[in-house]
Amino acid sequence: MILCAPLFGGQQVGLKVVVVSGNGDENVINEIPPAPFAVRIVDAANHPITGAMVRFTAPSSGPGGSFPTGLTFNTISDEDGRALGLLYRPNSVEGAYSIQVRVEYQGESVMATIRQTNVLVAKKAKMSSKRKFVFVALAGAGAAIAAASGLGGDNGSSSAPSRPPAATITFGSSSIGGQ
User: In 65-159, which ranges are continuous DSSP H helix?
Assistant: First the structure.
């Protein structure tokens, strides 16, 4: 029986997986997320590893999803060490779960986890109370300018309308309008 030592005289590469995108994401159930999972495979010196075998695996039950190939998706890292988990579609079960990432290269293997949550509806960006105040203040100021300039109707004068007065609205150090 002949045994072959790994390349580089038996030295290990020091394989690492860095999750680039997808960790902590919330996905709307049954919709493909806007960006795929992305990992970067590097060696101990943080140099990219080209040609590493990468396997993304979704949970087999509960919250999760699938790839076009099923619960697993296999790919190879590119020249920048990147590997993408393409066309993942969350299932219809709400909740938190993990996508397992297994990487193999020159006899070494390493695992990583991408944490996800399936949600029924995407969260809407909340408008802060400060933004609500600015919006209301601007709307009120606009109404006041319109009333002061006589844009609301005929003021009974037969002469030509005069130029509306200039108005300045100031919020802290920012100003809107004026001369």
Answer: 129-148
Please give the average per-residue pLDDT across 37-44, as a whole number.
97
Closest CA to 91 of 57, 117, 65: 65
Which element (helix H / strand E) includes 98?
A: strand 95-105
The answer to whether residues 88 and 66 touch, using CB atoms and an 8 Å cutoff, is yes
For the chain, the domains span 9-119, 125-150+165-179
Residue indicated by tokens 């299932």: 91
**What are φ and ψ of residue 158, in 5° steps?**
-95, -10
Check whether 81 has a pLDDT greater than 70: yes
> Taking Cα atoms as reference points, which of 111, 107, 65, 104 lies closest to residue 88?
65
CATH 2.60.40.10, domain 9-119, yes or no: yes
pLDDT tens column, 139-169: 454 554 445 555 444 455 455 555 555 555 5
User: Do 146 and 133 touch, CB atoms closer than 8 A?
Assistant: no
Q: Looking at the predicted structure, is the pLDDT value of residue 5 above 60? A: no
Asked whether 136 and 169 are in contact (CB, 8 A), the reply is: no
Q: What is the dihedral of CA 73, 77, 80, 81, to 10 degrees?
A: 90
Distance separating alpha carbons of residues 50 and 68, to the nearest angstrom: 24
